[in-house]
């Protein structure tokens, strides 16, 4: 199976911590559960910039604590096209990919909205992770455990 997760940008003018935009740049994560232990292989332009793969494991443990479902061993191959520590949501991309993998491995029991809430809890704010789930431009609002967002389609010829 494969998951493509876009880079994101936030802090768009007056939309600080509210606006998020998915970009046309993706990390590609292939995974399968035909293994006895979890392994992660990283390739791509920014693979050498990764310090370690602990974020995948951290997300899996978080998912297990929050849901009570055990994530089975998984073989992961990620192609890292999003620059690390660049403000383009590379951590959010890993969080979103890992939550999709965990949900798939445990029987797809959580909705996209449930996964988004977990991602926001991990990331601390919605403006990077929500557009990584939805694509496009989003306006996000979080009040406690309540997450609300509105997605806006944007003209794909828009560049900046």
UniProtKB/TrEMBL annotation:
Q: Keyword Transferase, does the record have it?
A: yes
- The protein's superkingdom reads Bacteria
Q: Which residues form the GHMP kinase N-terminal domain?
A: 54-136
Going by the UniProt record, its keywords in alphabetical order are: Amino-acid biosynthesis, ATP-binding, Kinase, Nucleotide-binding, Transferase
Query: Which biological process terms from the Gene Ontology are attached to this UniProt entry?
Result: amino acid biosynthetic process
Q: One GO molecular-function annotation for this sequence?
A: ATP binding
Please provide an example of a Pfam family that matches this protein in its UniProt record: GHMP_kinases_N
Return the protein name.
Homoserine kinase
The species is: Thermotoga petrophila
Phylogenetic classification of the source organism: Bacteria, Thermotogati, Thermotogota, Thermotogae, Thermotogales
């Amino acid at each position: 199976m494969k998951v493509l997760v876009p880079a994101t940008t936030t802090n768009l003018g007056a939309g600080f911590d509210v606006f998020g935009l998915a970009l046309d740049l993706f990390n590609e994560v292939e995974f399968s559960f035909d293994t006895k232990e979890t392994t992660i292989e990283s390739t791509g332009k920014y693979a050498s910039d990764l310090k370690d793969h602990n974020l995948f494991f951290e997300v899996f443990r978080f998912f297990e604590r929050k849901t009570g479902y055990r994530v089975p061993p998984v073989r992961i191959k990620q192609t890292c096209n999003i620059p690390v520590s660049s403000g383009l949501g590379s951590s959010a991309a890993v969080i979103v990919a890992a939550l999709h993998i965990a949900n798939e491995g445990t029987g797809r029991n959580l909705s996209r909205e449930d996964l988004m809430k977990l991602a926001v809890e991990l990331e601390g704010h919605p403006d990077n992770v929500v557009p990584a789930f939805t694509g496009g431009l989003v306006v996000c609002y979080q009040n406690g455990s309540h997450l609300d967002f509105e997605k806006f389609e944007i003209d794909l010829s828009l560049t900046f």
